Amino acid sequence: MDRSKSPEPHEPAGIYVHIPFCKRKCPYCDFYSITALDLMQRFVPALKQEMTLAVAELSRFDTVYIGGGTPSLLKAARIDEIIDTVQRLFPIMPAAEITIEVNPGTVTAAELKDYRNVGVNRINIGVQSFQDKNLKFLGRIHTAHEALKAFKMAVGPALIISALISSMQSRARPELHGSGIWKRPSPWSPNISRPIR
Fold first, then answer.
1. Domains and CATH numbers, the chain
2. In whole angstroms, how far apart are CA 195 and each of 105, 156, 158, 163, 188?
3. pTM of whole model > 0.85?
């Protein structure tokens, strides 16, 4: 929590929980993450312990966002532990938005259902692009087909959103800038139209 910019007491705030594990690190991503998946088993108990040390300076929270990394590497039982601890230790509003980020390459229909069953009501699918050449360029572990499949699997009583990258010309591979490769951003319309169909 950024205490220098704390909202007024009457304004609800949000809680962000970072899950720092990935199957593979994407070259464009600046968020802290590691690929030592053997540490996941020890991470959740440590996270819960750290939460007990935090002091809620605000009176209420209307958002819980579980991001990463790749939170969908954790099974629903572990996500349930995290949500339960947050709700026990912090004043979470009854209609709070509880979000989990999922990678299309690490989630199944059953797991999405399990996330909803433990209290998740908003699913952020980390698509980045619906074009395979762009996904390969970005170092993503999923394909465009898997991204669309994730959308279909996620249909249910949870709000679905998608993370997309509009331009990847020099952000992911600065050494290509001015090289004649990827001179202009990839067409944006397919990334918008495909999940809407």
1. 11-165+176-196 (3.20.20.70)
2. 17, 15, 16, 12, 13
3. no
| Token digits of residue 112 | 């999405």
pLDDT of residue 17: 97
Q: Supply 164's token pair.
A: 């997309």
Neighbours of 67 (CB within 10 A): 17
Beta strands in 26-148 (DSSP E): 61-68, 92-102, 122-128
Separation of alpha carbons 12 and 59, rounded Å: 7
Instruction: Compute the half-sphere exposure of residue 186: CA atoms within 13 Å on the CB side of its CA.
Output: 19
Taking alpha carbons only, the member of 59, 191, 195, 83 closest to residue 129 is 191
Q: Are strands 61-68 and 159-164 parallel, antiparallel or unpaired?
A: unpaired
**How many Cβ atoms from other residues are within 10 Å of residue 54's Cβ?**
11
Sheet holding 92-102, edge to edge: 13-19, 61-68, 92-102, 122-128, 159-164
Task: Write down the pLDDT at residue 88.
Answer: 93
The total number of residues shown for the chain amounts to 197
- Could you read off the pLDDT of 68-119 as tens digits, one per residue? 999 999 999 999 999 999 999 999 999 999 999 988 878 888 999 999 999 9
